[in-house]
Amino acid sequence: MGAKDNNKSSLNNKMASAVKVFPTFAGMIDQDVSMWLRDCKIIAKTLNMDDETTRKILILVLKDKAL
Predict the structure, then answer these.
(1) Per-residue pLDDT tens over the stretch 1-46
(2) Which has the closest alpha carbon to 44: 31, 57, 34, 32?
(3) What is the pTM of this model?
(4) What domain of life does the UniProt record list for this protein's source (predicted)?
(5) Contact by Cβ (8 Å): 23, 36
């Protein structure tokens, strides 16, 4: 395995771990998208995530109607 493969694997592991921390959003009536985004921004900042990685994770935590 080359260095590039190790870096990609490391990034995938970090994203998989981070996804578990982020709240899901399903677009239900009782969910407030503003509060969800605020919470996600706080988590991303706490984990020192860059914007691109944060966007990828936000896509992964969308469910049901929010897709």
Answers:
(1) 455 666 667 667 777 788 899 999 999 999 999 999 999 999 999 9
(2) 57
(3) 0.76
(4) Eukaryota
(5) yes
The C-alpha angle 22, 33, 24, rounded to 5 degrees, equals 30
Q: What is the pLDDT of residue 43?
A: 96
Report which of 21, 11, 20, 13 is spatially closest to residue 45, judged by C-alpha positions.
Answer: 21
pLDDT at 19: 87
Q: What region, left, alpha or beta, does residue 9 occupy, with left being phi > 0 and alpha being psi -120 to 50 degrees? A: alpha
- Tell me which amino acid residue 62 is: L
* Token pair listed for 61: 């935590």
